[in-house]
Protein backbone atom coordinates (compact mmCIF):
# COMPACT_ATOMS: atom_id res chain seq x y z
CA UNK A 1 0.00 0.00 0.00
CA UNK A 2 1.35 3.39 -0.90
CA UNK A 3 1.17 6.41 1.38
CA UNK A 4 0.15 9.08 -1.11
CA UNK A 5 -2.49 11.70 -0.33
CA UNK A 6 -3.85 11.73 -3.89
CA UNK A 7 -6.09 8.71 -3.24
CA UNK A 8 -8.22 10.67 -0.77
CA UNK A 9 -11.39 12.18 -2.23
CA UNK A 10 -11.76 15.89 -1.57
CA UNK A 11 -15.25 15.89 0.01
CA UNK A 12 -15.67 12.39 1.43
CA UNK A 13 -14.87 11.90 5.12
CA UNK A 14 -11.79 9.70 5.31
CA UNK A 15 -10.39 7.56 8.08
CA UNK A 16 -6.75 6.53 7.87
CA UNK A 17 -5.71 3.33 9.60
CA UNK A 18 -1.92 3.50 9.67
CA UNK A 19 0.22 0.52 10.60
CA UNK A 20 3.78 1.33 11.62
CA UNK A 21 6.84 -0.80 12.17
CA UNK A 22 9.93 -2.45 10.84
CA UNK A 23 9.10 -6.03 9.84
CA UNK A 24 12.81 -6.95 9.98
CA UNK A 25 12.88 -6.39 13.76
CA UNK A 26 10.36 -9.00 14.89
CA UNK A 27 7.73 -7.41 17.18
CA UNK A 28 8.64 -3.90 16.00
CA UNK A 29 6.68 -4.72 12.82
CA UNK A 30 3.36 -5.39 14.59
CA UNK A 31 1.56 -2.39 13.06
CA UNK A 32 2.38 -3.58 9.55
CA UNK A 33 1.21 -7.12 10.41
CA UNK A 34 -2.10 -5.80 11.79
CA UNK A 35 -2.70 -3.73 8.64
CA UNK A 36 -1.95 -6.79 6.53
CA UNK A 37 -4.48 -8.83 8.49
CA UNK A 38 -7.13 -6.11 8.22
CA UNK A 39 -6.54 -5.90 4.45
CA UNK A 40 -6.78 -9.70 4.20
CA UNK A 41 -10.09 -9.68 6.08
CA UNK A 42 -11.42 -7.05 3.70
CA UNK A 43 -12.60 -3.51 4.24
CA UNK A 44 -15.37 -3.21 6.80
CA UNK A 45 -16.41 0.37 6.14
CA UNK A 46 -16.44 2.79 3.26
CA UNK A 47 -14.17 5.79 3.55
CA UNK A 48 -11.44 3.82 5.33
CA UNK A 49 -7.90 3.58 3.96
CA UNK A 50 -5.46 1.00 5.37
CA UNK A 51 -1.86 2.14 4.89
CA UNK A 52 1.37 0.28 5.64
CA UNK A 53 3.44 3.17 6.98
CA UNK A 54 6.55 1.05 7.54
CA UNK A 55 9.16 2.89 9.56
CA UNK A 56 7.72 6.37 9.07
CA UNK A 57 8.93 9.22 6.99
CA UNK A 58 7.78 12.77 6.51
CA UNK A 59 5.82 11.62 3.44
CA UNK A 60 3.17 10.24 5.82
CA UNK A 61 2.33 13.76 7.00
CA UNK A 62 0.39 14.25 3.76
CA UNK A 63 -1.98 11.33 4.30
CA UNK A 64 -2.47 12.28 7.94
CA UNK A 65 -3.50 15.87 7.21
CA UNK A 66 -5.80 14.66 4.41
CA UNK A 67 -7.68 12.47 6.91
CA UNK A 68 -10.68 13.30 9.04
CA UNK A 69 -9.88 10.51 11.49
CA UNK A 70 -6.67 8.61 12.28
CA UNK A 71 -6.00 5.24 13.86
CA UNK A 72 -2.34 4.29 14.33
CA UNK A 73 -1.24 0.74 15.19
CA UNK A 74 2.29 0.40 16.54
CA UNK A 75 4.46 -1.01 19.29
CA UNK A 76 4.34 0.91 22.54
CA UNK A 77 6.14 0.69 25.85
CA UNK A 78 3.18 -0.10 28.08
CA UNK A 79 5.11 -1.60 31.02
CA UNK A 80 2.89 -4.65 30.60
CA UNK A 81 3.15 -8.26 29.52
CA UNK A 82 4.22 -8.84 25.90
CA UNK A 83 1.21 -8.76 23.59
CA UNK A 84 -0.80 -6.39 25.79
CA UNK A 85 -3.00 -4.14 23.64
CA UNK A 86 -4.09 -0.67 24.79
CA UNK A 87 -6.12 1.97 23.02
CA UNK A 88 -5.27 5.64 23.54
CA UNK A 89 -7.84 8.02 22.12
CA UNK A 90 -7.80 11.78 21.54
CA UNK A 91 -5.98 13.73 24.26
CA UNK A 92 -4.88 10.46 25.87
CA UNK A 93 -3.13 9.53 22.60
CA UNK A 94 -1.50 12.96 22.43
CA UNK A 95 -0.22 12.64 26.00
CA UNK A 96 1.11 9.12 25.44
CA UNK A 97 2.85 9.98 22.17
CA UNK A 98 4.28 13.10 23.79
CA UNK A 99 5.57 11.17 26.80
CA UNK A 100 8.49 9.66 24.86
CA UNK A 101 7.62 6.11 26.00
CA UNK A 102 7.77 4.69 22.47
CA UNK A 103 9.95 1.68 21.80
CA UNK A 104 10.08 2.08 18.03
CA UNK A 105 13.17 2.84 16.00
CA UNK A 106 11.39 4.85 13.32
CA UNK A 107 13.23 7.41 11.22
CA UNK A 108 10.62 10.04 12.06
CA UNK A 109 8.51 9.81 15.19
CA UNK A 110 4.74 9.75 15.28
CA UNK A 111 5.04 12.80 17.54
CA UNK A 112 6.81 14.64 14.67
CA UNK A 113 4.01 13.77 12.23
CA UNK A 114 1.29 14.85 14.64
CA UNK A 115 3.18 18.11 15.24
CA UNK A 116 3.23 18.78 11.49
CA UNK A 117 -0.53 18.17 11.28
CA UNK A 118 -1.08 20.46 14.27
CA UNK A 119 1.05 23.23 12.78
CA UNK A 120 -0.96 22.99 9.57
CA UNK A 121 -4.17 23.20 11.61
CA UNK A 122 -5.22 19.80 10.22
CA UNK A 123 -4.74 17.33 13.05
CA UNK A 124 -7.58 14.81 12.70
CA UNK A 125 -10.18 15.51 15.39
CA UNK A 126 -10.73 11.81 15.92
CA UNK A 127 -7.49 9.98 16.51
CA UNK A 128 -6.34 6.91 18.37
CA UNK A 129 -3.23 4.85 18.94
CA UNK A 130 -3.53 1.11 19.36
CA UNK A 131 -0.31 0.24 21.15
CA UNK A 132 1.00 -3.29 21.54
CA UNK A 133 3.69 -4.19 24.07
CA UNK A 134 6.57 -5.89 22.22
CA UNK A 135 8.63 -8.76 23.58
CA UNK A 136 11.49 -9.08 21.05
CA UNK A 137 13.04 -6.18 19.14
CA UNK A 138 15.84 -8.07 17.41
CA UNK A 139 16.59 -9.15 13.85
CA UNK A 140 13.96 -11.52 12.52
CA UNK A 141 10.83 -11.44 10.40
CA UNK A 142 8.46 -13.31 12.71
CA UNK A 143 6.49 -11.89 15.60
CA UNK A 144 7.05 -13.46 19.01
CA UNK A 145 4.22 -15.84 19.97
CA UNK A 146 2.74 -13.42 22.54
CA UNK A 147 2.68 -10.51 20.09
CA UNK A 148 1.41 -12.66 17.21
CA UNK A 149 -1.47 -13.70 19.47
CA UNK A 150 -2.34 -9.99 19.92
CA UNK A 151 -2.98 -9.40 16.20
CA UNK A 152 -6.67 -10.49 16.29
CA UNK A 153 -7.35 -8.30 19.35
CA UNK A 154 -5.67 -5.29 17.70
CA UNK A 155 -7.85 -5.87 14.59
CA UNK A 156 -10.94 -6.03 16.82
CA UNK A 157 -9.95 -2.73 18.48
CA UNK A 158 -9.51 -1.05 15.06
CA UNK A 159 -12.93 -2.28 13.92
CA UNK A 160 -14.55 -1.19 17.22
CA UNK A 161 -13.18 2.34 16.80
CA UNK A 162 -14.34 2.48 13.17
CA UNK A 163 -17.80 1.27 14.14
CA UNK A 164 -18.11 3.76 16.99
CA UNK A 165 -16.77 6.67 14.93
CA UNK A 166 -19.07 6.02 11.97
CA UNK A 167 -22.23 5.37 14.01
UniProtKB/TrEMBL annotation:
Report keywords, A-Z: Aspartyl protease, Hydrolase, Protease
GO molecular function term, any single one: aspartic-type endopeptidase activity
Q: Which CDD domains match?
A: H2MP_MemB-H2up
Q: Name one Pfam family in it.
A: HycI
Which residues, if any, are the signal sequence? Answer: none
What's an example GO BP annotation here? protein processing
Q: What is this protein called?
A: Peptidase M52
Q: Which InterPro entries match?
A: Pept_HybD-like_dom_sf, Peptidase_A31
Regarding protein family, the annotation reads:
Belongs to the peptidase A31 family.
Q: Which organism is it from?
A: Thioalkalivibrio denitrificans
